[in-house]
Design brief:
There is one protein chain. The protein is of the alpha+beta class. The chain has a domain at 2-303: putative glycoside hydrolase family protein from bacillus halodurans (Beta-galactosidase, Chain A, domain 5). The protein is 29% helix and 26% strand. The protein contains 18 helices and 31 strands. A hairpin with a 3-residue loop joins strand 28 (701-707) and strand 29. Helix 16 (625-631) packs parallel to helix 18 (667-681). The two termini are 39 Å apart. Residues 26-306 form the DUF5703 domain. This is DUF5703 domain-containing protein. Residues 1-20 form the signal peptide. Keywords: Signal.
């Protein structure tokens, strides 16, 4: 009997553990091209791995590898061939993304290859083991062997956005061929797009004080292993010419490996970059580094999970895949780019122009579109991944002096002015700033139909910073100046604008007059937009240190139509631009309205009956209809839209989604899906933890998510019953309200 109960306990323990483990992605055949690739990464590295014509390929991308035009360049393409080839003609072929351990394997019974990124060092390892001795050939393939003049379409990949007058050139890389290793790097010139934008935006006198992360930046790496150089060749891949440098095994063996060590630094001297690269190489210990990286991934997956059965099972699986891709930039210097991240592949495989290189993406790699970028990071709070949010927080912290300088130089105001389309050097994207500006036009304002006065995107990051304290007790002292300065700008700018326009700097009720302003990119030249009002109220209430300013924020504008009260985008506006529904931003991310909050019926009326909202209903890109539905307790709409957001994309890897207005993979597809599923499962309102506020009764699910107050909630709903509930700390269990 003792043995029976022991075995039963072990079985139950194993079954419970399986709930928390992500399911591997397994392919049983090779791919046609890079569109059939699988993501792999860690730290700040992303790879696209695939097997084609018996060769193993991967693209390699690293956060922060921006050239002088602000294109995020790939480090290169790598091709590996084994002879005799254990992958050739095998029906028992397997390519697997091992999510729990964070690596990709290619295997058959006669051989295997493991590819993994070191989470704590900028290094990629490739390990091969075969039953019979095998020779390995490793080719480094580069399409940047000569300077390249960008086409207009190609210019969309950089800060010039394809609209800059004159010629834009991607300069060539440097390749240093050694007998036993290959060194490759891109060296930015001292003159960069930053200098051109400074001149465009009238800040030449301040150039010395402005941040330039591109000047003299050198990035690249070195391939090393028990290899010797064997020659070069030229070829074409997916419409792009390349040159390859090939190294082969010194002698055939059963076990072989090589590594690619990366390094980036701003220096005018190449030898300084090489010294930094060699320093990293000396710090490596493959076995220990592998163990540490696997341990990090194992612990990562234990922080939270969502496992579902039946109708929601595929959505829950894809939830893991989007979370994995975000975690590959856990320690990046720069926030993840939502359109493509570190995992773009050849444009020609997506039906695009064959002349575009693997470096291409639409939307400018160095352009930080505030609202879209925030969608990558909101899901991290409930996933317990607050450490992954630091690249976003640190980015804004670095750009703060430039945002403050803009406000001071242009208007003589204190505070920090961040544009919705801010470049990673802190100035406005040149196309959004306006290339054909009228003479005498306010130099601080964007001259663009969708970008003008859209300044409140930074407040999403400010609110995330404040939430990180509640979720994970993060020390945010270094980000307080960002919050203070971002809030101060709105107070000082709009009071100053009102004072110049009339007798008082406030309205007749003692409130700010937010005009001219913008309700997202949609309602332009707006008066008191609801999205900006909600943003300021939300951040000020969470911050708690500026009660006088909070008292000056006007009320959210409402309107009653056909007997139903609704949220207005603004009190009035002059025109409309891009399709959007900023009148629902007070629901999320600002949580002014929602389940258990005042005004729920007003917000539901807006979602269900507002004509503009209905017209813009969508489940693609950065649209948040599924999230708003979940926050409002609209179970039917939330479940339908969230399943669509987390459905399989058109490519072999199911989380590689494609939309018309973004680049592939469109990470915001999955980010919105993750947020929708989180809000369906768990919400916190006024100290109460709402369990299943928008979850269908018939869907079985087991989840573990985080809540404010350093709280975790693990619950299992099965057979329309709550069969498990674990709340940590236990005293918060009394705050749980089961909405089913």
């Amino acid at each position: 009997m003792k043995v029976f109960f022991t075995l039963l306990f072990v079985w139950l323990l194993g079954s419970t553990a399986l709930w928390g483990q992500p399911a591997d992605v397994v392919w049983n055949s090779q791919s046609r091209n890079s569109s059939g690739s699988m993501p792999c990464g860690g730290g700040d590295i992303g790879m696209n791995v695939w097997v084609e014509d018996d060769d193993v390929f991967f693209y390699l991308c690293r956060s922060g590898s921006f050239d002088e035009n602000n294109t995020l360049l790939k480090q290169g393409r790598f091709r590996i061939r084994l002879t005799p080839n254990p992958f050739a003609g095998r029906s028992d072929f397997r390519q697997t993304l091992h999510l729990e351990d964070g690596y990709v394997s290619v295997t058959t019974p006669v051989g295997q290859m493991h590819i993994w990124a070191d989470v704590f060092h900028p290094v990629v390892h490739v390990e091969v083991e075969t039953k019979e001795v095998t020779s390995m050939r490793v080719s480094y393939e580069s399409w940047r062997t000569a300077d390249r003049v960008m086409s207009r379409e190609e210019g969309l990949q950089c800060s010039y956005a394809g609209e800059w007058p004159g010629t834009v050139v991607t300069t060539h890389d440097s390749i240093l061929v050694g007998e036993e290793n290959l060194t490759f790097f891109h060296r930015n010139a001292s003159h960069t797009v930053v200098d051109a934008v400074i001149k465009q935006q009238g800040l030449e006198s301040e150039a010395f004080h402005l941040y330039n992360p591109l000047r003299n930046l050198i990035f690249g790496g070195r391939i090393a292993g028990d290899l010797i150089f064997s020659g070069t060749r030229r070829g074409h891949y997916c419409g792009t010419e390349y040159e390859a440098w090939t190294y082969k095994s010194r002698k055939p063996a059963n076990r072989q490996s090589f590594r690619i060590t990366l390094h980036a630094v701003q220096t005018p001297v190449v030898s300084d970059w090489e010294a930094g690269l060699e320093k990293t190489e000396k710090e490596l210990h493959a076995a220990k580094d592998k163990e540490a990286s696997r341990r990090w991934w194992n612990e990562f997956w234990q922080r939270s999970f969502v496992r579902a059965e039946g109708e929601a099972a595929r959505a829950a699986r894809n939830y893991d895949l989007y979370r994995y891709m975000a975690a590959c930039n856990a320690f990046g210097q720069w926030p993840a780019k939502p359109d493509g991240g570190l995992f773009t592949f050849d444009p020609s495989t997506m039906g695009g122009e064959s002349q575009l290189t693997p470096d291409y993406r639409r939307g400018g790699a160095g352009t930080l579109t505030a609202h879209e970028m925030a969608l990558v990071y909101w899901p991290m709070l409930k996933n317990g991944d607050t450490d992954l949010m630091k690249p976003l927080f640190e980015c804004y912290r670095r750009l703060l002096p430039t945002a403050q300088l803009r406000s001071q130089v242009y208007w003589g105001y204190s505070g920090a002015c961040f544009s919705e389309e801010t470049e990673n050097f802190g100035l406005v994207n040149p196309a959004a700033y306006g290339l054909n500006r009228p003479e005498g036009f306010d130099k601080g304002r964007e001259y663009h139909p969708s970008s003008e006065y859209e300044w409140d995107g930074v407040l999403e990051t400010c609110r995330m910073v404040l939430d990180a304290v509640s979720y994970d007790s993060m020390d945010i002292s270094r980000y307080i100046p960002l919050i203070e300065s971002s809030l101060n700008f709105f107070d000082v700018y709009y009071r100053g604008t009102a004072a110049r326009r009339g007798y008082s700097d406030l309205d007749g009720k003692g409130k700010l007059v937010l005009y001219p302003a913008s309700a997202g990119a949609t309602y332009k030249m707006a008066y008191n937009p609801s999205s900006t009002i909600a943003a300021l109220c939300s951040v000020l209430e969470a911050y708690g240190r500026k009660p006088d300013m909070l008292a000056r924020i006007p009320s959210i504008p409402l309107r009653t139509e056909e007997g139903k009260e609704r949220i207005l985008p603004a009190e009035v506006w002059e025109r409309t631009g891009e399709a959007g529904t900023p009148q629902l931003l007070p629901v999320f991310p600002w949580r002014i309205y929602g389940v258990g909050r005042e005004g729920l019926e007003t917000a539901r009326n807006t979602y269900l009956f507002d004509r503009d909202v209905q017209k813009c209903r969508a489940q693609t890109g950065e649209k948040l209809d599924n999230v708003w539905a979940a926050c409002l307790g609209l179970t039917e709409q939330a479940s339908e839209l969230t399943l669509k957001r987390l459905s399989d994309g058109p490519y072999r890897f199911p989380a590689f989604r494609q939309t018309n207005d973004a680049w592939t993979p469109d990470l915001n597809e999955g980010n919105a899906g993750m947020m929708g599923m989180q809000e369906m499962l768990l919400q916190e309102v006024n100290g109460k933890i709402l369990l299943f506020p928008a979850w269908p009764r018939g869907w079985d699910v087991h989840f573990k998510l985080h809540a404010p107050g350093q709280t975790t909630v693990e619950a299992e709903w099965r057979g329309e019953k709550l069969v498990k509930l674990t709340v940590t700390p236990k005293e918060r269990e009394k705050d749980v309200v089961n909405c089913l």
